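seq as requested:
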Amino acid sequence: MMSLRQNPRIRGLYAITPDEPDTAELIRKVDQALSGGAQTIQYRNKVASTALRIEQANELRKLTERFSVPLIINDDAALAQQVDADGVHLGGDDGSIADARALLGSDKLIGVSCYNLMELAHEAVMKGADYVAFGSFFASTVKPDAVVAGLELLHQARREIAVPLVAIGGITVERGVQLLDAGANALAVISAVFDAADVQRAARRFSTLNYS
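struct tokens:
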């Protein structure tokens, strides 16, 4: 596969999959999101069995390759390696950047959740993260107890951090405009895309925003 380090930086609609037990339904929805212009897919399923996660990740790998869009695996570098995903996204308890890099190699993407802490972002970049994520910027139905990040954090990060910035947490199209104006390069969205009656149309609305 082509090295994503030769491709454009992470930007645009960064669609994170819902906890969908039906693989066919998951693929149908993600296909619609990609058809609507999603630029990155993150596979996240916190309730699936190991076997189902492998099945779904493999199917998503095929789909994202067809659209030439990167597939990022949430939390699990080993699964990312197993399905030859384009990278992994690490939370606070998901292992080190060094371990993920050693497992996946230099041509894969590693993203890191930095919540509302600039010091975590600086540390992640120093250790080789390809992008950092901040949030939750707004109340989230997926993570109702998530720490809260303010728009000033994005302004500061844009001044201090050279890698792409991903914003997450309760994002709608209208709120997304505020986040992009504050310095975000990508909007990580679950509910506002995948809970929509028309997933493709919802994705298209996000995809037509002005991303830097």
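Residues 50-67 form the longest helix (18 residues).
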